[in-house]
DNA sequence: CCCAGTCCACTGTACATTTCG
DNA sequence: ACGAAATGTACAGTGGACTGG
């Protein structure tokens, strides 16, 4: 069958090695899972079992799961019903001799999945110049659209919850306009644009508030002239 | 060749699982539902389709539904009209290649998605007082452990990449010590503690650098007395 | 190979919202 | 008007493909 070439099976990297024929065709994998009777893939945690039961046992032990049977604690566990009751499946794993000591701790990510291949990483279109230009451009857009002027000290009031939400909404809108002024951002597909903004919206809000409040003492100034102080809350 | 024939490859169940993609083989998932043309979320029951059609097919097969068309059995099925005629929608699912064998049996119950909606949210043990106390406590620990003194202006140098990584590592260790001084944090289970710190490590680093640099102009001061300037990079 | 591990496409369930009878 | 059923989104769980010692 046309097995797909994987990363380290590049023909140029391998000498023509004949697949070794196992003498007598003694396939050790013709056994059945001791838990669910599916085809076994070897010994797992001390028991001949399938990949499904292997994974199920590992996950259950790692998370120290306590399942409950909704029936009489005697559910049948076979390939088709093995997901019906996790209590009985796990019980059968232990009964069959699976040892939870054989489950190891989580390892580091390997992530050769997405090999990233030491790509030089295209940094064209990423410069402080462009960021500054985007900053200016977005500030223009925002000032015309939102009609915001410099925050007036006289306007300051202690922020209510609504003020906080309101300023977050406003700042997030500004964030989007700003991002759209960065050429490299626009080269991303829409999904990636959204994901990028979503994941780092928190950092942006924080950085904005930090900058805005850098010369103040004892309180944080939000984008809508309300301030957050220690402990106090606006009415 | 003896390819494994297990659960998903059982001819009665479906899903020819493709071998893992080799690098470079990007599948952007920007495809459309073969049934209704909505945005697809992957292959479902063997057909590139949307979540709506996926759920519709599963429910229909599980309950062995027999629908009837009230028109001419040739209704158009698209994003807007897909719910107009179940008969034609299901027919189109099968025509597109959805396999009812791929619909599995009901499984065990899983943990509740929204564990308890509007619970009063326990805020005892969450106060500015406690945070300030934690700040002081962690500062003591850090100063004895890391022997850090106030950053000396004379030590300042333009940060190399190594300086940046080094300061991040240092700040993250400080972050952990700080969190461990917050009583409410210690009440979380270890997994939640880790998750919380991981997700918001970025914000903490940002906030730390912002505070440290609040009176500086044109550069950011890192925790190890190195500074990041615009454009310049330490040798 | 063997058997630990990880990865991730694809299953499933939970439930707010919408539609139907 | 209202309860029951269907819909579709969000996320948890599964297991086969894969890596590594
Ligand atoms: Zn099994
Ligand atoms: Zn049971
Ligand atoms: Zn669809
Ligand atoms: Zn129809």
From TrEMBL, chains A, B:
This is Hepatocyte nuclear factor 4-alpha. The gene is hnf4a_1. It comes from Amphibalanus amphitrite. GO terms for cellular component: nucleus. GO terms for molecular function: DNA-binding transcription factor activity; RNA polymerase II cis-regulatory region sequence-specific DNA binding; zinc ion binding. Pfam families: Hormone_recep (PF00104), zf-C4 (PF00105). Residues 1-25 are annotated as: Disordered. Keywords: DNA-binding, Metal-binding, Nucleus, Receptor, Transcription, Transcription regulation, Zinc, Zinc-finger. Its main location: nucleus. Belongs to the nuclear hormone receptor family. NR2 subfamily.
């Amino acid at each position: 069958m046309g097995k797909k070439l994987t990363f380290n099976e590049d023909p140029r990297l391998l000498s023509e090695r004949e697949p070794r024929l196992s003498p007598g065709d003694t396939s050790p994998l013709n056994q059945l899972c001791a838990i669910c009777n599916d085809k076994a893939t070897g010994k797992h945690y001390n028991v001949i079992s399938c990949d499904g039961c292997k994974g199920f046992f590992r996950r259950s032990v790692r998370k120290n799961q306590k399942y409950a049977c909704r029936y009489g604690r005697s559910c049948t566990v076979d390939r088709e019903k093995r997901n019906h009751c996790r209590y009985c499946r796990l019980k059968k794993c232990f009964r069959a001799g699976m040892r939870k000591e054989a489950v190891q701790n989580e390892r580091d990510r390997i992530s050769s999945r997405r090999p990233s291949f030491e790509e030089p990483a295209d940094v064209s279109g990423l410069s402080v110049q462009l960021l500054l230009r985007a900053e200016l451009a977005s500030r223009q857009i925002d000032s015309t659209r939102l009609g915001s002027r410099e925050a007036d000290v006289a306007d300051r009031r202690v922020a209510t919850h609504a003020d906080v939400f309101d300023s977050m909404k406003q700042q997030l809108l500004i964030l989007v306009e700003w991002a759209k002024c960065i050429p490299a951002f626009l080269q991303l597909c829409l999904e990636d644009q959204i994901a990028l903004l979503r994941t780092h919206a928190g950092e942006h809000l924080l950085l904005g508030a930090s900058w805005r409040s850098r010369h103040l003492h004892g309180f944080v100034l939000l984008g809508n002239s309300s301030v957050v102080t220690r402990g106090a809350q606006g009415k």
